[in-house]
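We emphasize that the prediction below concerns an isolated chain of 202 residues; any contacts that depend on oligomerization or on bound cofactors are therefore not represented. The input was used exactly as deposited, without trimming of termini.
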Amino acid sequence: NCKCEIKRYWIIFIISIIIFAVEITGSYFSRSLALWSDAWHVLLDNTAIFISLYIAYRIREEKRSEEDIRRQGSIENAILLLLIGIIVIYKGFTRLSSPPQIELFMMLPVAIFGGLGNFFQYQILEKVEKNDRHKTHKWLAIHIFFDLLQSIAVVICAIVIILTGEMIIDPLISITIGIFMFLQAIIGLWKILRTPPSNYFC
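Result of the prediction step, given as a token string:
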């Protein structure tokens, strides 16, 4: 049902805006690159949500094949995830030589808040019936999953830094998450482009 799909995407979008506002503010005051990366990942994921909304509206209004529209949207989402991964990796390497002092007791609660928001978003997507888990749904779920993964990594990062005092862990966590995003995007694009449209995301 396109109306339910659109409503679902709007709810996820609103949650993402709130998470971004909290995390970008928290990253500024805490000086955490991992939290900053997570915030911009959330913002770029809003673009993925807009792509998903755009696809849902187009399917309602156009006579083109739903399969063609969702395939095109999946390619766009994969490219977006690839770009996010590259940006996160680059920012991580720029911080390796001189990681700043981080306000950990600002970083930790903000990261927990972001993780809870991502978990709620992911649960919204997971409750969808199996026959509604089309390509658009699966790519958006991948974006949200990596947001959740990054939030968990930031929480772990803050706890480890509190225990060890090693600030270099912050950029290392960012680089690791960026590599995972990059590889997921490459694998996804390879699968989309090499497999016939009717089978590539079964």
